[in-house]
Amino acid sequence: MAGISPQITNLVIILVMMQVSKRIPLEDPNVLNLVRAGYVLSNIIIITVYAITHFKINQKKDMTTLKYVDQPQMGSTEEPKLITTTVHKYDVDQMKALYKAQLMGVGMMAVMHLYFKYTNPLLIQSIIPLKGAFEGNEVKIHLFGKPAIGEMKRPFKAAAGFMSALQGGAAPTQDKKTIEAAEKAGRGGAKEE
């Protein structure tokens, strides 16, 4: 499955797990508790993977300067902003975003399951976020030791998808011409330390 897009594999997993969840007797309290335990275990594994990755980022503490132009969201009147930071700071910020996204997912699942009594999404949400955690650039670079080149070169491009298209905003650019133009125009120049 190395050549298949993560969005396609997610779609296949969702379709398969929807069919599987129809055949699992979730009305049975014992089965439901097993599914809940699987969901909790999945989230513990994800947080552990993120914590180990975060530890390795802090251990490396790469202070190489990273300059890029952050493109504003589509429809915004803001100018592109020059960001000057370090690889370490960028990676830590990316990890914070991953933690936040995971907590948001757990919160939404808690509302869906505890308040609205939906049980089927527990199965899907036990697999998709776990798969996503291992497909993340930070985890690939720091946990699996892959080089930060090509698709994994910082700044990372936003994952292509329906929501990213709606939210707009082009990927951050790092070419010399754009950076020099932003420096000359005096746009932003936000230095993150």
List keywords for this structure.
193 residues, mainly alpha, three-stranded mixed β-sheet, 61% helix, 7% strand, elongated
Describe this entry's structure for a reader.
The mean pLDDT is 86. Helix 2 (29-60) runs parallel beside helix 4 (120-135) and helix 3 runs antiparallel to helix 4 (120-135). A 3-stranded mixed β-sheet has the order 1-2-3. The two termini are 39 Å apart. The protein has helices at 6-23, 29-60, 87-115, 120-135, 137-142, 162-167, 176-185, and strands at residues 65-70, 81-86, 190-191. The protein is mainly alpha-helical and 193 residues long.
Class per helix and strand makeup: mainly alpha
Number of helical segments with 4 or more residues: 7
- Following the backbone from N to C, one meets helices and strands in this order, namely HHEEHHHHHE
Q: Strand percentage, roughly?
A: 5-15%
Supply Rg. 20 Å
Number-wise, the strands total 3
Q: What is the spatial order of strands in the main beta sheet?
A: 1-2-3
Please mark out the parts with pLDDT under 50 across 5 or more consecutive residues, or reply none: none
How far apart are the termini? 39 Å
Largest sheet: 3 strands, mixed
Task: Please render the helix and strand layout as text.
Layout: H1 6-23, H2 29-60, E1 65-70, E2 81-86, H3 87-115, H4 120-135, H5 137-142, H6 162-167, H7 176-185, E3 190-191
